[in-house]
Amino acid sequence: MGPDAVLVEVSDLAEVMALHARLTAAPPAGVIDVVPAAGTVLVRVDPIALSLAAARTWVSTVASSAAPPASAPAPVTLPIRYDGDDLDDLAAALGFSPEALAARHVATDWTVAFTGFAPGFGYLVGAGWDLDIPRRPSPRTRVPAGSVGLAGAFSGAYPRETPGGWQLIGTTDAPLFDPDAAQPALLVPGGAVRFDPARARAVGSDGALPGRTASPTAGEPGARSEPVTAPGDIRVISPGPQATIQDAGRSGRAAEGVGAAGAADPAAWALANRLVGNRDGAAAIEIAVGGFRAVAERDLTVVVTGAWARVEIDGRTGDPYVVHEWPAGTELRLDGFLAGTRAYLAVRGGWDIAPVLGSRSTDTLSGLGPPPLRPGDVVAAGRETAGPVPALPLHPWGLPPTGTDAVPLDIPFTAGPRSDWLTSSSRRLLAEATWVVSAAADRVGIRLEGPRLERARGEELASEGMVPGAIQVPPAGQPVVFGVDAPVTGGYPVVGVVTPTGRSRLAQARPGDRVRLRPTVRGAGTAQRG
To answer: Mean pLDDT in each 10-residue stretch from start to end of the chain (530 residues)?
Structure first.
């Protein structure tokens, strides 16, 4: 699955859990993530430390051996109140009383099969649980944190407020996900779980669980009631449509449901840090579309890369990719971009933001990391320098390429593990058609508009581990390319994976740009049956 992952297909969920336990017992150096799902295990590696060929050999050896599994996580008991909005109707539809359905849920020994959907959301399978629960016909736009639900063969608890279509049967006040804890996710694959109504605490009159507040997604109304006003080195006047703090992102936590995040255009972000002499990994501000304004509260040295944005400081206009002095008390403006979508504002020393799970990146889907910047926010500069500011520019000046009808933007990709879910004519069409970047484009993913891709298989695909750049094809037939803030699992077939170069190009593409998906050297191969 792309240049740094392999997808292993096994016969059923029990085999997934067994293989995951053996793979995580003693992984070799270079293994970043081992992500179980409904019928597959995704193994993501650092290809410099462990080649895909070596990773496949290791997986095959472990799958065919009697290697002992990793020690099981400590069992977890979740307090629960059976007060869910769907309990009565669901019980009646199943032929139970609400009390009988609750008693059956309590009596079941549950195990965390895999995680996904949101950080800390565990898909629980039950010993002897034989009920197949349909999802709601229309998902709720708001499921409160702590809600316990049923869907298909699974039970689960929502760690934070999100949309969701599961049938809600109860609530828990257990701390399901705490990014500041040594083990952020309470429920991890392989762990045993029991529900205990006797340990549940009272619910307040407003329906909130004691000691808990809603945790809305970053960027949603109410995500933060007041600007950040601690001492800082710049004060934001306007962030534009969206401005977020980004670094290299979070790796190695996909099995906990935590996505990658990080800069959408890693090459532009890394170059910004090099131009001001920062250490690798320093945080920058990722600015979408333009409209950013801020005032310096002390003398700073800054640079802008990525999208082509005129840099106006104290009324004087300069170029991107050129280091500028930003005197105290003056305003910096990045108005509408001439080309590209995302610009990176790097300050010498980096931006001093407290890391969350090892990264200062904002994840717009899960809400991890600092919220998107707002008017009045102040941000401090750090001390992450690696040397002097280079004497000469390290990058040739030029506008990011724009895809037109005459010259579409080339986006290289490798064939995906589910490419055979498309008809042969649709596989050709994927690589030969000119696609249009739709308005449904953000850090989570980009929908491409064009001819309808026909599937060769009509059944649904169970959730599988995903990687940034994965090209999914939903039943409507329009491909969607996963971005850096996408979920760690998905349920549509991955017919290709965009290369890192292609992902950087897509990060700068605008709605209406024309692109061509260009097949390149195939990755490690299609999914292998264990």
So the answer is: 94 91 93 94 96 96 80 90 97 96 97 90 95 89 95 94 93 94 91 89 38 37 50 90 97 92 96 95 97 97 95 96 96 95 97 95 94 96 93 69 86 96 97 96 95 91 93 93 94 95 96 96 45
Rounded distance, CA 51 to CA 253, Å?
Answer: 20
465 inside domain: yes
In a domain, 34, yes or no: no
Task: For residue 528, give the H/E element and its range.
Answer: strand 528-529
Give 291's strand partners. none
**Residue at a domain's end among 362, 379, 396:** 379
Question: Quick check: is 209 in a domain?
Answer: no
* 502 closest CA partner among 396, 418, 426, 414: 414
Distances from the Cα of 163 to the Cα of 86, 134, 139, 338, 505, angstroms? 15, 17, 7, 36, 30
Question: Is beta strand 494-498 parallel, antiparallel or unpaired with respect to 409-415?
Answer: antiparallel
Domain extent for 116: 76-199
Question: Where a domain ends, among 184, 199, 214?
Answer: 199
Instruction: Note whether 494 and 416 are within 8 A (CB).
Output: yes
353 and 252 in a single domain? The answer is yes
Q: What is the C-alpha separation between 214 and 34, in angstroms, rounded?
A: 30
CA distance 143 to 84: 11
Distance between terminal CA atoms of the chain? 16
Chain mean position to CA 270:
20
The alpha carbons of the chain give a radius of gyration, in whole angstroms, of 24
What distance in Å separates the CA atoms of residue 137 and residue 117, rounded to the nearest whole number?
A: 18
CATH number at residue 96: 2.40.100.10
Residues 239 and 371 in one domain: yes
